[in-house]
Write a structure and sequence with these properties.
Distance between the termini: 19 Å
Bound molecules: flavin-adenine dinucleotide
Number of helices: 10
Number of domains: 2
Strand order of the largest sheet: 5-2-1-9-21
Structural class: alpha/beta
CATH topology of the largest domain: FAD/NAD(P)-binding domain
CATH architecture of the largest domain: 3-Layer(bba) Sandwich
Strand content: 25-35%
Radius of gyration: 21 Å
CATH class of the largest domain: Alpha Beta
Largest sheet: 5 strands, parallel
Number of strands: 25
Shape: globular
Oligomer: single chain
Amino acid sequence: MRLVLVGAGHAHLHLLTHAARLRAAGLDPVLVAPARFDYSGLATAVLSGAVAREAAGVDVAALARAAGVAHHPTQVVAADLTGRRLTLAEGPSQDFDLVSFNIGSVSRDPNGLADRPGVWAAKPLASLFDLKTWLETAMLGRAEAPRVVIAGGGQSGFELAAALAGLAARHGTPPQIRLVGDPEATWAPGRAGDRLRRSLIGRGVVFERGRVIARTPTGCRLDDGRTLPCDAVVLAMGLEAPPLIAELGLPLGAHGRLRVSPSLQSLADPQVFAAGDCAVIEGAERPMVGVFGVRAAPILLENLIAMARAAPLKAYQPQAHWLSIMDLGDGTGLAMRGRLWTKGRAALWLKRRLDRGFVARSGRLKRGA
Ligand SMILES: Cc1cc2nc3c(=O)[nH]c(=O)nc-3n(C[C@H](O)[C@H](O)[C@H](O)COP(=O)(O)OP(=O)(O)OC[C@H]3O[C@@H](n4cnc5c(N)ncnc54)[C@H](O)[C@@H]3O)c2cc1C
């Protein structure tokens, strides 16, 4: 049975490190994914300059080679589920018997800003790393940092503001960052949002209520009619599944995510599996955070093997509470779990330990694989 893994997100990295088990079950795994995986847990650390980009990702091509998995270092651009065939951005098409999607998410862009000059999306993460290069070049030998507007007051918007303030501090340049959104940070528990906002204001971040709806040649326009002058806009208005998922023609949930059963199969096509941000589990919708791709991975592995052996499949029940740690770009972090939270150096220490551990484990084959 030909199993095609589309995307090397958190769950598929786990499958690659266990490729020997897939083969032993009679599956022939093929991977279609870019040659490198950028890990979001360390993305803001790269943006602030605390961590080198090379240390914040996995060499997917090397991992696939070591695992003996055929790898097409490109993207799937279309899928014919009736003909069981995938069209790749480069090279010949790829047939499959079983297919699994772990292609993550992209920044929501309700006003079509992403293609305008001077606009960077929070996701794909490569866009953030391009922004960093652009900012560093612009700050060289200049007393002022470029004026950046972050569109979106969710957790990512706040974390990006913190990272960009950290980057400016590393360059000894006062930041010029405005965060446009809901300054109350209602997504954070208790007084955590208030503490975070006050610390960001102390580091030079300005908060503006409203929504960015357009890019102008020298700034951006808000929904209340105001125009803010700026050199760059960062889109952080939430995430949605990549358009490829909607193009499959299968049932979708909110934000274009593929509706899957607890066994991680499409509700309409049991040969199609999906995990991570691009999927939503029936009756157990969770936000787009990495932990759910990581925790789904062992079930995905077992269920693909079970499909090959015509055995019963297992159910994945995502947890109700999870630990989320923000990197605040100044050597501290904000850790949150349910109603609990703590802010300080210990939180960032724990985050680095967990994130570096994930990257190290994901790049290593399991014994015998
Ligand atoms: C700034 C920022 C910081 C974040 N920080 C955290 C954090 O600290 N902790 C956390 O848990 N979550 C964080 N998140 C959320 C996190 O990015 C996602 O929840 C997580 O990456 C989802 O994992 P995934 O495995 O579904 O997909 P991803 O990690 O997005 O991986 C998907 C992979 O699929 C590839 N791909 C995409 N399309 C195709 C295609 N058509 N064909 C082939 N391959 C394709 C991509 O290149 C990518 O490598 C953050 C998000 C942002 C924007």
